Amino acid sequence: MTVNTYPKLLHAPIEEAILTVGFDTGCNTDELSTIQKCLQVDYPVVKTWINNRAQFTQNIETNSIEVLQEKSHRGYILTDSNENKVFYISDNELVLNQIKPYQDWENFSKLYEKAFKQYHSVCTIKRINNIALRYINKFEIPLDKWQEQLLMYPNMKLDDVQDSSPTFLVETTTNYKVISEHHLAIADVILILNPSEGGSLSVILDIEVNSRIEHSDYNNYAFIIETLDRLRSFKNKIFFSNIPNAKELFNA
Fold first, then answer.
1. For labelling alongside 157, which of 3, 97, 167, 248 has CA 20 to 30 A away?
2. Residues 6+ apart with CB under 8 A from 5
3. How many Å apart are CA 186 and CA 46, to the nearest integer?
């Protein structure tokens, strides 16, 4: 089990937290409906999850593009009464999406574990294909100190002493991919910076971490807990390594 050694933030800047487990089941429509009714006790707002698929073909005679649209039933989308927790259920994945306010990891992971076990009690999960954890963080830092408070964005320098014009940070999006052999995980990170006229810098830090262990037979939930511990530790390492004064920023 991976131990989380990073501090708990009183005001973590989490806009969304998303936990996804993909699996093989062979679950049919009736079983999905039963799972939906089990979860509906805590998530009463129910919508049908529809797959939209478009196929484009070229008609040579008329020199036109024909579009064939297909819709199929994928599963259900269930939302709680506060409209900040959403479950997506299908025959091959279970997704929990929580928007702010985000309480803490213990509460978030327990909500998922309860729903996962309800799912498994109706439709047997045979193999785990992927496990992913994604956190979208949004916060602001002073523009004049952003290079001290955010370490992951490169600085631009001018070596030509004849050109003394200042450089300005403009709205920008940067993508990173980080692989960890220790955590057996791979992270896709999106950093969006947007300076404001008020002297602050708006930051969106989107971290999605996927397990590099694929196609594991499902025996019990302990395997998922262990994997999530690794993914969360890696996510926290990326976050705290690049925001060195996170405790001061998000505990005030």
1. 248
2. none
3. 33
Which tokens in the block code for residue 210?
A: 């996927």
SS3 state at 111: helix
Of 157, 194, 158, the closest CA to residue 174 belongs to 194
Average pLDDT over every residue of 118-137: 94
Evaluate the omega torsion of the peptide bond into residue 195 and state whether it is cis, within 30 degrees of 0.
no
Q: Report the sign of the C-alpha dihedral through residues 172, 173, 174, 179, in that order.
A: positive
**Is the pLDDT assigned to residue 149 strictly greater than 90?**
no
pTM beyond 0.90: no
With 0-12 CB in 10 A as exposed, 13-18 as middle and 19+ as buried, what is 113?
A: middle
Nearest residue to 16 via CA among 202, 207, 229:
207
Of 183 and 169, which is predicted with more confidence?
Answer: 183
pLDDT at residue 161 is higher than 70: no
